[in-house]
Structure formats: C-alpha cells, structure tokens
Amino acid sequence: MTRKRIAAIVEGQGEVDAVPALIRQWLTQNNLHARWQLVTEKAVCAKGQANLLAPLQPAFQRGVEYFVNAALRADPDFLLIVLDADDACRERARKNEQPLGAHVLERARAVAGHKEIGVVIADREFEAWFLHHRTAVVPTCPAAQAWQPTREIEAIRDCKKVLEGWLGSYAPTADQARLAKRLPLAEGAKSPSRSFQKLHKELSRLLP
Question: Quick one: pLDDT at residue 151?
Fold first, then answer.
C-alpha cells in the first residue's frame, strides 16, 4: 500500500518541530503509520504571522501562497496549516472582515489545486493549549497543577511567561515539541479550548 503524504506549514519557529510531533502522535495513537507519512521531519516555516498573511511577494518570501507552493514541492496529499491567532481574529471581526481561518484557507486553495487542506488557528497562541491541558503536559509541576487562571486562557496575551514561571525557563524552539507530544489528542473533541477542538476535528477529517 502506498502511504499518503502530509506536509505542515507553520508561522513560528517553535512549531517547526512541534506540529510534526503532533501529527506523528496522532498517527501513532490511531495506528495510521501504514497509511500516512510526513513528507519532511520539519514544517515549512513562515517566520512570523506577518509573513504568512502578507500579500504574495515571492521575492521577499511572503504570503500564504508562497509557503503553500513551498510545501507542494514535496508533493503531499494533505496540507495542515497552523498559526497563532494573536489579535488577528478579533481585529478582523472588529473590521467585519472574513474570519482568519477562512481567509487563509481560501488563499491556500487558490494555489493548492485538488490537495486537501486543513487550517487551525491557535487561540491566542500555541502555548494556550499547554495551559488548558497542564495536567497532561506538565504533570510533575506542582505550580502548574495548582494554577487557577483568573480569566479565560485565550485572553492571556503571553502564555509563554506562564510556562516560564512553571518550568523555570521556556524556549519554543527547545521545549515546544517536547510538550506538544504530551497533549491529549485522543480527548481533543472534549477540550476546553475551541481551537484545540478544531485541531482534533481537522486531523479526524483529513487523517481518518
């Protein structure tokens, strides 16, 4: 059996390893390695939301279309695009603009042809998923287990600082993939995080 191929596109350096780690975890949990494979060990990285969302400028390596074309060189069957919402979703809603996920998906489809595409927007950032699932992600950290957020986790502007307080230090490129492997993907449909539910939904839809 020929395995179908998956490519990932991310905006941040930490997700270069973390998102492939999540995909591998999903394949392992669902016994899908015989049917699916990652085309590369690392995700295509836009090096910032601004580069990903900018109008297409190939000479400056900017634009959703540029990074989709870069991922398509490996001839994947499925593209997964993951980026942080930061303030973009709220700002687009304030301006009555197309939702961010729909905007990215529309631009990606314009150049990806018949390829299957999933877009997941982490709200407000990738690390918010760690805070939501701290019992699984940092089970031996007493500070994390005792932590009670004083507001909605998606409203926290710098989840990285919370993680740094728990762990003593936190660097996305060094720690994000390690912690991502502990996210409870099997329980994602019941996650308190809507954006993590979206990740579960897209993986379930596209990697059945």
Answer: 84
The answer to whether residues 28 and 205 touch, using CB atoms and an 8 Å cutoff, is: no
pLDDT digits (tens, 9 = 90+) for 124-170: 999 999 999 999 999 999 999 999 988 889 888 899 999 999 999 99
Non-local (6+) Cβ contacts of 126 within 8 A are: 12, 14, 15, 18, 82, 84, 172, 176
Global confidence as pTM: 0.94
169: in domain: no
DSSP 55: P
Alpha carbon distance 193, 152 (integer Å): 10
For residue 141, is it within any domain? no
**Dist CA 90 CA 97 (whole Å):** 10
Provide the CA 173 distance to its chain's centre, in angstroms: 14
The predicted-structure confidence for 29-56, as pLDDT tens digits, reads as follows 999 988 999 999 999 999 999 999 999 9
DSSP run (H or E) holding 84: strand 78-84
- Counting the structural domains of the chain, the total is 1
Confidence at 76, pLDDT banded by 50, 70, 90? very high
The CA distance from 198 to 96, in Å, is 22
Range of the domain at 58: 4-126+185-206
Nearest to 158 by CA among 194, 124, 122: 124
Specify whether the CB–CB gap between 176 and 15 falls below 8 A: yes
CATH for 88: 3.40.50
Q: Has residue 158 been placed in a domain?
A: no
